[in-house]
Amino acid sequence: MSSLSGSTLRYNMKQRLSFTYLIFIFINTLFVVKYASRIDAFNGYVVAFIYTLLISIISIVYIRLDLKNYYKYLFNITSIFFFVFTIYININVDGNSLMVDRWSAMEVGIKALLNGEYPYSAVDHLNGRTSNLPTLLLIGIPFYFLGNIGFLQSFAFLLFIYIISKVFSTYKERLLCLLLLIFSPSYLWEIYVKSDLMSNFIIILAVVVFMQDRIFRNIKNNPLFESFLLTSLVMTRITAVIPISILFFKHFYRFSVQKKMIFIAVSLATVILFSYICFNKVSSFEHFCKHNPFELQNRQLPILLSLILIITPMIYSFRAKNIKSILYLTVIFLLLPVSIAFFTSIYYSGFKATLFDSNFDISYFNMVLPFLLLSLTFDYKILLPINRNMSSLQDPAIILG
């Protein structure tokens, strides 16, 4: 590697790491400020500052430490302990006492579906309705039968452990990514309130990691399988189309006409099948217009802006050269619609109403977190002394912007 290319790579890694770390801090301090301020003894802003300082110091110290063979044991012990912790929280926290209804919205939606009723008419414990698209309701069914929808979070945590074990080659990297996750107040909030949002995107991340490996190694996939799998993911949440587009649109563009037709046909069949399962019991078209998941998921942004933010990642998919660039692009394009909605709410309602009075649901930022954590972990080596990290910079990362 020439000194020029090495310097360029270091510069781009620094730029990317700076951006992703700032986003990591921004998302988590929003949760710290909001919820620490509800405790009379605490000033939310002071607690957020202390959190930022501590997580920054701990991260730098961890990165520069060399614990040799202990990383494997620490990773395994931490994984087991936190998995048990998620089970404990889900069993011992009474969901009906929570002022967040994602868990109960999914539960009543699944119950209605299994009873042959229209799931989007079912009312949860806070008089809300589920906004989950059909696939996510179907994913939740096994956990409904286990007696606790919150166990979806425990499953998603194990899936995240599996993902980072596949993506990162060293236990130091795996442990770093794991620690960043469990020291994220935004994720701890997800666990406590039994939310399905971040679990949804951990599942999407797993498929992205699986598919990108096969795509970039030119392993032939069955277009029937690809179409069914990716369409099913898009039918979990509207914004799922963003990481799927970044991952797959370039690949789809290069298909032959015949493969494109097969892919589209299977995709349409999947949409029709899942839509029939969940929408066939609706009493009327008027009722569907008032009670459907699309309206609930898209109420934060104008439809035209949402379409633009969904189509643009398709163009950028041609710039995705490896898993690092897919993750980074996904962070950017998932962050955009949430940030626009957040700052629009601040503009019209003010910061206090937006954050503290919950005019905006800041948990939408958690869609970004699984991709953000992997992107952060990929670039941490840039903080090592130059003679220690140059050998780790051999993997070419796409230069964005």
Overview features:
401 residues, mainly alpha, 19 helices, 70% helix, 0% strand, globular, membrane, transmembrane helix
What's this entry about, in short?
The chain has helices at 3-36, 44-64, 70-92, 102-114, 134-145, 151-167, 171-182, 185-192, 197-216, 223-234, 241-253, 257-279, 285-290, 293-297, 303-316, 323-349, 351-355, 369-379, 386-389.
Characterization of this structure:
This protein has one domain (3-392). It contains 19 helices and no strands. The chain has helices at 3-36, 44-64, 70-92, 102-114, 134-145, 151-167, 171-182, 185-192, 197-216, 223-234, 241-253, 257-279, 285-290, 293-297, 303-316, 323-349, 351-355, 369-379, 386-389. Helix 3 runs antiparallel to helix 6 (151-167), helix 7 (171-182) packs antiparallel against helix 18 and helix 15 (303-316) packs antiparallel against helix 16 (323-349). The longest helix has 34 residues, at 3-36. Mean pLDDT is 89; it is low at 393-401. This is Glycosyltransferase RgtA/B/C/D-like domain-containing protein. The chain crosses the membrane at residues 19-36, 42-63, 70-91, 136-163, 175-192, 228-249, 261-279, 300-320, 326-350, 362-383. Keywords: Membrane, Transmembrane, Transmembrane helix.
**The biggest beta sheet, please?**
none
Order of helices and strands: HHHHHHHHHHHHHHHHHHH
**Strand percentage, roughly?**
under 5%
Low-pLDDT runs of 5+ residues are: 393-401
Number of domains: 1
Compute the average pLDDT.
89
Termini Cα gap: 22 Å
List the quaternary state of the chains.
single chain
Shape: globular
- Measured on Cα atoms, how large is the radius of gyration? 22 Å
Structural class based on helices, strands and sheet pairing: mainly alpha
